[in-house]
């Protein structure tokens, strides 16, 4: 299905009508746009103004078999997931909240890694850093593979990198992972913290 958007250019006030697909292929072109946060950028044909949109859709990588439901507003989650319901279900299915999270999943899945393990590793790092620098520290961690494979830490406006430790990854895969892949899931920091605390309380 195609979603049609009407919008007005903020610079020249041209009325624009743009079409987006509910299911958007994660091909080379779209992955490149995801990297520059331009997947939903519309260029005004009259004045070349770039307009960034956010909209709900499912990003589908047919080759590596994963689907990312991009949910801008949490209340629309079920609606977005339903866009995929007539599709072959034999996919890893994740819910992501923005292009950054979608990009991270593409890095993980295209490297044939397990995102459950990556999120647990990130949570272990994050919990350690919050202990060290205070629990109110503004802190984000992302897995990347460009330009090199590592974890990027964004903390108080500075960015750092942590090496990706393959031994640690293998250990997490062995110790934690037994997940069913039936439904779309949010595999993020909150998920990882839940898994880690179940482990502590077991
Ligand atoms: Zn314009």
Label this structure with key terms:
binds zinc ion, 202 residues, alpha+beta, 34% helix
> Based on DSSP secondary structure assignment, what is the total number of beta strands?
11
Mind describing the biggest β-sheet?
4 strands, mixed
Shape: globular
User: Which percent range describes the beta-strand content?
Assistant: 25-35%
Mean pLDDT across every amino acid position: 92
Helical percent range?
Answer: 25-40%
Bound molecules: zinc ion
Q: Separation of termini?
A: 46 Å
Number of domains: 2
**Structure class:** alpha+beta
Extract low-pLDDT stretches: none
Describe the protein.
With 202 residues, the chain is α+β, with helices and mostly antiparallel strands. The protein has two domains: 2-110, no CATH class; 115-201, no CATH class. Helices cover 34% and strands 28% of the residues. It has six helices and eleven strands. Strands 3-6-7-8 form a four-stranded mixed sheet. Strands 9-10-11 form a three-stranded antiparallel sheet. Strands 1-2 form a two-stranded antiparallel ribbon. Helix 4 crosses helix 5 (166-176) and helix 4 (115-133) packs across helix 6 (189-201). The longest helix has 19 residues, at 115-133. It is globular. It starts with a strand and ends with a helix. The chain binds zinc ion.
Write the layout of secondary structure elements.
Blueprint: E1 2-8, E2 15-21, E3 23-25, H1 28-35, E4 41-43, E5 50-52, E6 57-61, E7 66-70, H2 77-82, E8 92-96, H3 99-110, H4 115-133, E9 139-144, E10 150-155, E11 158-163, H5 166-176, H6 189-201
Helix pairs in contact: 4-5, 4-6
Bound molecules: zinc ion.
The site of zinc ion (ZN) has 8 residues, from loops.
């Amino acid at each position: 299905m195609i979603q049609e958007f009407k919008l007005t250019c903020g610079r020249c006030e041209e009325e624009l009508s743009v079409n987006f697909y509910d299911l958007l292929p994660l091909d080379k072109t779209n992955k490149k746009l995801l990297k520059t946060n331009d997947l939903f950028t519309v260029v005004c044909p009259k004045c070349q103004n770039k307009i960034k949109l956010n909209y709900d859709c499912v990003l589908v990588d047919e080759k590596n078999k994963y689907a990312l439901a991009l949910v801008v507003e949490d209340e629309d989650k079920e609606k977005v997931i339903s866009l995929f319901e007539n599709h072959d279900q034999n996919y890893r299915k994740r819910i992501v909240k923005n292009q950054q999270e979608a990009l991270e999943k593409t890095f993980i899945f295209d490297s044939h890694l397990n995102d459950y393990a990556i999120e647990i590793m990130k949570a272990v790092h994050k919990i350690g850093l919050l202990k060290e620098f205070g629990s109110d520290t503004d802190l984000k961690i992302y897995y990347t593979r460009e330009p090199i494979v590592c974890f990027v830490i964004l903390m108080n406006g500075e960015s750092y990198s942590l090496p990706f430790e393959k031994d640690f990854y293998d250990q997490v895969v062995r110790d934690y992972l037994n997940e069913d892949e039936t439904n779309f899931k949010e595999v993020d920091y909150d998920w990882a913290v839940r898994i880690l605390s179940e482990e502590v309380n077991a």
